[in-house]
Structure to design on (104 residues):
């Protein structure tokens, strides 16, 4: 129904607040990370998965970079991407969500 609503809204000359309301409904209907939905496992790249596995260790980001033979900034970028994709705000939360999804 949301797809049909989006198509109908696209034909409207001035949808007003409906566009915002439809966007909210679409977001609410999406599955969220950490619910065991296997689609989120596909979102992480191989390098992001490698970084996620190292997040569960005591290594600093600089030590992770050295172990993966990449720059510190690359690790920081991967960590930000992992947090965004797993809807996490801390290292611990990312690791927990990764475990729940069977990534680690």
């Amino acid at each position: 129904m949301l797809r049909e609503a989006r198509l109908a809204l696209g034909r409207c000359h001035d949808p007003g607040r409906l566009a915002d309301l439809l966007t909210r409904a679409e977001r609410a209907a999406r599955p969220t990370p950490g619910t065991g939905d296997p689609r989120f496992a596909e979102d992480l790249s191989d390098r992001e998965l490698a970084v996620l596995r190292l997040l569960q260790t005591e290594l600093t980001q600089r030590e992770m970079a050295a172990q993966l033979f990449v720059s510190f900034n690359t690790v920081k970028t991967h960590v930000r991407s992992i947090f965004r994709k797993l809807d996490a705000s801390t290292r611990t939360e990312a690791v927990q969500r990764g475990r729940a999804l069977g990534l680690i």
About this structure: The chain has a mean pLDDT of 83.
